[in-house]
Amino acid sequence: MTATAVPRAAAAPLLMRNRIGLVILGLLGLVDMSAFAFPMDDDAKAGPPTGILVLDTILGIATVAFVVVALRTRSRGAIRIVAGLRIVSVLSAVPAFFAPVPPALVTAAALDVVVTFVGIVLALTPPRRAHPVLD
Fold first, then answer.
1. CA pair distance 109, 86, nearest whole angstrom
2. How many domains are there within the chain?
3. What is the extent of the structural domain holding 98?
């Protein structure tokens, strides 16, 4: 038996809005990676628990890695993974809306949710397909 190589179709080019969305999500990943750069005081009850900080740091590293993969390979699968990672990260911020935390942290969590939503919508926007003109 001989194996024949089947040529792989070239990945569809990313639109400008896809690239902008990936950059936004990559920047959010960098923010998540810096979770331990600004530790909270031990006496302070405000702020996320250490487990959430560790989770967000891991999610940030994975987000940045998959953003680089998505931009280099134009892989729709990598873009979906980035979107999933950011959704999990946003879900870790939801308790800030219900816990007794300072208003600044609630505002930061709300901003994170909105910017993540915008970035995901931009990154996952599919390319337009040409429709034939039928006369």
1. 13
2. 1
3. 16-36+47-124
**C-beta of residue 12 within 8 angstroms of C-beta of residue 127:** yes
Tell me whether residue 71 is in a domain: yes
CA 36 to chain centre: 19
pLDDT at position 38 is: 65
- Please indicate, yes or no, if residue 4 is contained in any of the structural domains: no
Within 10 Å of residue 123's Cβ, how many Cβ atoms?
Answer: 27
Q: How confident is the model at residue 77 (pLDDT cuts 50, 70, 90)?
A: very high
Whether 41 is in a domain gets the answer no
Amino acid at site 83: A
At 88 the pLDDT is 94
Written as six digits, the tokens of 129 are 């397909």
34-42 long-range contacts, CB within 8 A, separation 24+ = 34/60, 35/60
pLDDT in tens, 15-46: 899 999 999 999 999 998 887 776 665 555 66
Exposure class string for 8-33: b at 16+ Cβ within 10 A, else e: eeeeeebeeebbbbbebbbebbebbb
23 domain residue, yes or no = yes
